[in-house]
Amino acid sequence: MHSSRAVRTQEDDRAVNGLKRAWFGISMGVVMALAVAAMALIGLSSGSVASAAGFEEFGIESFGAEESTVAAGMHPDFTTAFTFKHEDTTLLEEELSSGRLQGVSVALPPGLTGNPANFPKCSAGQFVAQECPIATQVGIVKVLLSGHAAATETLTTPLYDLEPPHRSMVARFGFIATVFDEYINIKVRTGSDYGVTATVEDSSGQAAVVSATTTLWGSPSDPSHDELRLTPFEAEIGCENACLTPSGGRSSGVPVRPFMTNPTSCSSQLVTATATNYEQPGKIFSAEALLPPTTACDALSFQPSLTVEPTSRQAGAPTGLNAVLKIPQTNSVGLPATSEMRDASVTLPEGMTIAPGAANGLEACSAAQVGLGQETQSNCPEAAKIGSATFVSPALPEAVHGAIYQRTPEAGHLFRIWLVSDEYGLHLKIPGEIEADPRTGRLTSVFSETPQLPVEEIDLQFKGGARAPLKNPDACGTYQTEYELTPWSGSAPTVGKTAMTIDEGCATGGFKPKLSAGSANPVGGAFSPFTVDVTQEAAEQNLAGLDVTLPPGLEANLTGVELCPAAQAATGACPASSQIGTTTVAAGPGSSPLWIPQPGKAPTAVYLTGPYKGAPFGLSILVPAQAGPFDLGNVVVRAAIHVDPRTAQASVTSDPLPQILEGVPISYRTVKVDISRPGFILNPTSCAPTSVGANATSAAGAVASLSDRFQVSGCAGLPFKPTFSASTQGKASKANGASLTVKVAAKPGEANIGKVNLQLPVQLPSRLTTLQKACTEAVFNANPAACPAESVIGSATAHTPILEVPLSGPAYLVSHGGAAFPDVEFVLQADERGGDFEIILDGGTQIKKGITYSNFETVPDAPISSFETVLPTGPHSIVTANLPSADNYNLCGQALKMPTKLTGQNGAVVEQTTAIAVTGCAPAIKVTKGTVKGNAVTLVVSVPSAGKLTAKGTGLTSAAKTVAAAKSVTLKLKLNKQEQKFLTRHRDRRLKLRAKLQFTPKKGSRLSSSVTVLVG
Q1: Is 1.10.150 the CATH classification of the domain at 718-919?
Q2: What CATH number should be reported for the domain whose range is 516-536+565-572+579-591+604-625+632-714?
Q3: pTM of the predicted model, to two decimals?
Q4: pLDDT tens digits, 310-348
Q5: Residue 975 CA from chain centroid, whole number
Q6: Which of 148, 314, 671, 761 has the fewest beta carbons closer than 10 A?
Q7: CB 561: neighbour CB atoms within 10 A?
Q8: Is 505 in contact with 536 (CB distance < 8 Å)?
């Protein structure tokens, strides 16, 4: 190396080029000689000489690292120095060094970075041609190679900033070792701490490396490095300073800017190194060097700003979000760099919440798919993408583009995201948490321990549209986003607010839900699924409760349905045998709300339960809150089923609907309940138009009355053939009055009874003393059991196919204010598996001219197999006996008739005169009526049972009839010819004839009677 400097002329350049060619030839000769010597050694050693060569001894003998300054954010010259184990052995006058270096990696501590973008780059062609511009030099490499015959060769060569071969590489440096191109590839450890690693891969290995020292300049354009600026040729011939200009160095010709930058967090810095050699593939040698702790973090600047704007400014609408974070950077050698951001917490405005509709079709990206902890390309599904991300760094020539993905939810961490980019080989995978306030739904995004990399701008754009992930506040106005940004320097966080404006679609807050309800098969008397559907528009007050009243006659068949026990009903874990239907719920703003259940997710269910909140039955409505990648557990809404005792109409009153779930407000758009269990819902048999009614309550307390027309068809075609019978005890008394038993029976498939009109016979009038003991309406309505005992006149039992047990209960006389006579009120109850089910039948009473009329005008439209009323004798009997005979309390032998009119719910009428059977009497036959017209005699005879009745007499023809039950039988007899001739000759004469009656019952003894008849 020369001590003087010289000026190079054209002749010098020609000489230099000649030397260069000669040096290349010499270098190649050395390489070839080494190769030949190695082959010779292998041929002579037969294995033992290889051990003597000692490449097993390869390793890192020493490793060191130093900085010219440890001040945080400043720009140090950074130097690493290696010494490798080696052993020179002379054999056959040839030198053989231990293992040949294959590769070296140096892992810089997090935050120690370089900024290649501040300086020009050498192209690949320039580098191969050894013509890199002097301005692209960013440091010096010194390599000590083992030489021939124990001599050594020290090579000092410039380190250049190269153009990366592709965008998958952050940066690349290069140097020329003799005639060989060596590359240092730079990557970011995205699989761990986001520090920088420099790697020399696949070194030429033509000579063993004894030591290597690399210095990266903190500011390569600083004049202090002018004397070290070399060309590769100058490095080869070793002229170094002698090659420089007389002025003492070469200027880079570019502005003085920083290249290397210290971390902005004050902590110890560990540099780790690894090395490999060709002779021991797969074996890695490592070493560490501890730099002094970074200092003066409190001197660092950190002045970030944040703006947040929704993609939609419409109140209550789905919206995306554009968030721009700016961190001003310094770019001066004399100033420390801005501190990197460690943590970020951003709280969106009150009322800006998660929009459930975003979960439609959404998938999630797992840690395995994103490749967390690996320096590999992410593989998140496209359906998990919810936005885009852009990162601007002063260290990169262009912005880095990436995506925002939904992370796979975990218990307690449902709403999470990934910020991902695979450009420049960075493979960024930054996790973020979205915390939703469980009471208000207000959102806070949190990023913790973000990479210590220089970033001057981060743009996050969450997608907008109908399936945007967020919902705007429901009212127009100016809203504040609050943020807290914490630097790595340890200084106080920057706290601030940024405003957004919502000024479109401001007319929100109404409450006008709509009701749609009906039977799928609206045929009278048929079983059919039944649906109730309540919908509302976006941005209305949220639905909070619902009370639905079903139309009259729409009944539920409870037979065969297992009632879900209370404990299971509370959790929705009811048996399948309790399920009567399903529900569908849509929630969320805009035109694309979230529909549950979603395809492939758990189904919903509506279960019938036992008593709930004082009602005889209830519902347990199970809605698994599953959508996209989210599973928010089961939502169970209970409801009470009340039955109006007067009309048998059912009404369903829900508990308050949940308004927020796991921090996600549930803005209801549709609540639909389908009662679809086969054979459960039975349509009315009346085709009169009615309605389904509902009262809807909003979360703000508003109430909306809803109604939807309901009507079935085909009722006129239903048969209506009920049977009606009555009986009374023959022995009445003044003290205990008389009795009356009435029974109505019907068959399945017929129209239900709508009205019953009865006219008691004059022989069975109402008992005035009992009428005077009626219960008052006020007492009865408050509690029938509080009515006086004297007002209880009997009992009734009703069997219905839709209950597993009969309804039964007392009959009360109840006075209604100014009404002339008290009504008969039947209070029928059933203990339907724990449910106290009650029906009240109201029979109006009228008494005219001693005849009692009882009219049941509002019989519920429900199927009745049989209905039996017993009004017994006793001190408070409602009827007594009134006979025009000396013994006016003996009804035996009396022909008692009850005119009856039954009207079906479909309008059909059965009108008849019902004979009241008299019980408790000795069997007898009795002529109740006899008429003579001309030569004919007509007898009406009461018989006590099934059997055959015959009649005959002197001068009369005979007649006979067979009957199937006790009833009045009409027989017609005529005069014989002889008696007819007699009356013809003696027109002024009358015949006194005696007819004999005989009744032969099916069971029991024969009965006889006679009657005298005057003819003529």
Answers
A1: no
A2: 2.60.40
A3: 0.81
A4: 999 999 999 999 999 999 999 999 999 999 999 999 999
A5: 93
A6: 148
A7: 20
A8: no
